[in-house]
Queue: 3 jobs
Job 1
Amino acid sequence: MQLTNALLLVLELLLYFTVMAGLFRLRHRLGIGIFFCALGVMHFLETYLAAILYIPFFMGSAISPGSTILFSGKLVMLLLLYIREDAQTVRQPIYGLLIGNFLTVALVFMARAHFVSITAGRVPDYSFMDEMGGLMVWGTLLLYVDSILIILLYERLGPWLRRFQALRLCIAAMVILSFDQVGFWLALHLVIGAPVEVLVGGWAAKMVAACCYGVLVWGYLRYVERAPLTIPRPQRISDIFDLLTYREKYEDLLQSVGRDKLTGAYDRSRLPLEEDRSSSLFGRQQRPFSLLVVDIDRFKSINDDFGHAAGDEVLRQVAAAMQSVLRKEDRLIRYGGDEFVVCCSGLDGREAGALSERIAGRIAALQVERVSRPVTASIGTATAPDDGVSFDELFAQADHRLYEEKKRRHAGDPGSGASGNPLSFQPV
């Protein structure tokens, strides 16, 4: 009987490690979340077995697979996660388990207020749920402390055992699992009256498990993790999640290609696409197409007087202000350093003039923290087919009107770069 129990424990340990290490190995292909979920979903089973199921072992001891296999394996898996990833990644499953267990206890407490109907003579066993909830919270608190301690101890052992990683892993696991066994047994003793045989037998079993897991992790790091992961790529998309991911990434790529990193607007590589769109609209569909060229007044002096960081902030806020008044189908393009182009499908000349007024007003209302003078912009507009039948003609006409407006405004007040009132811009 004892030999059968020992063999089953070894098989359980190997099964646990093989599956979890396999999921960890595939983290860059499937995502680390699948590893975290598998790690956390067994938390209830681990606590339940640690509280309920004990098997007789050598010399009158009693051990639990939940504590020996599942908890010990989880702690060593978190150490593996730290070794191959970082401490920031390790905290995610720990905090997730802790918050989830507190939420479980809170929901069980609230569930008592429900009026329940008895089904097939069965009633909720709230006392059992209370016991399990308390043990799960306590176990997760111990796991939080254990994880910090095993990482710190593993690091401290580095200067002496750097060339003996297997021994380093085993010692770190044995020391921290010894601390954990005492802490969890005290909770079991208070809640369910676990005898001292559980403490002694569980400690001995955890020491064996620590050595086994330490050697397995060492072998994994040495022979598996260092080897390149070669997985044949499927010739066609066969998984619905692959299909959804592909579509999402493709659509994101279409939206992000040609984006200006500073302002979030499209960059000038987008212009050929807009040229094709404009030709289709006012050529084949006989719909108007308007082009706005926007230039920030005296932008060079903003950089000179307040610094390039302030100039970048002006560009960001101007782009955001313009985007806030544009329609979904309009395209905002950063053409040059301080010059933007707005492509508006289906907008006639009158509507384009009204839009330019809204843009000028929104920009004039900006208050940039590091710039102590108003920010204004000059705008030139052109509409097809009235101002041209090609994109180049429209752009040239809008650009010409922009600079005519700038000359007019500078003539009114050369020192300010705008006529007395920053809102005095008149669309042309």
Note: The longest helix spans residues 126-156.
Job 2
Amino acid sequence: MSVIAWLVLGLLAGAMAKVVLPGHDPGGLMGTTVIGIAGAFLGG
């Protein structure tokens, strides 16, 4: 996959994680999204 696809996949994973596990976390939506993107890069 291309880098753009990994970014989109990570963004979706971060957003879905926020929907599944709502509540207060230190990073907020942006932190969750960044973690999702990092996980997508590590997984790919």
Note: The radius of gyration is 10 Å.
Job 3
Amino acid sequence: MAREIITTDQAPQAIGTYSQAVKVGSTVYLSGQIPLVPETMIMVEGDIEAQIRRVFENLAAVARAAGGSLADVVKLNIFLTDLANFATVNAVMAEYFEAPYPARAAIGVASLPREAGVEMDAVMELGG
């Protein structure tokens, strides 16, 4: 099956050797997003809640570029440098997703690129 590379200027450009997303058939693999502002490629200002919102906005932009939305996400991986922020992730996520929610993992990590407090990647299914 052919791979289609998804790109958009509405989300941060890749800061390494990866694509924003790759579509294979009806499945889209969205690369990890950190809270960079697409227009400036600088970290969003504010607390961890602002970072989480920026990450969801970035993922939503890539999802739209692939022909979907966050409602099409079937798996979400969340990486946090402080698991004490888990409740904040849940509260903000409830603003971006409705039940039935995607499968999800939340993983505590020592550090993330650009000293971000959160990074998320996702798998999206457009097949119906």
Note: The beta strands are 3-6, 21-24, 27-33, 36-37, 42-43, 73-80, 103-108, 118-125.
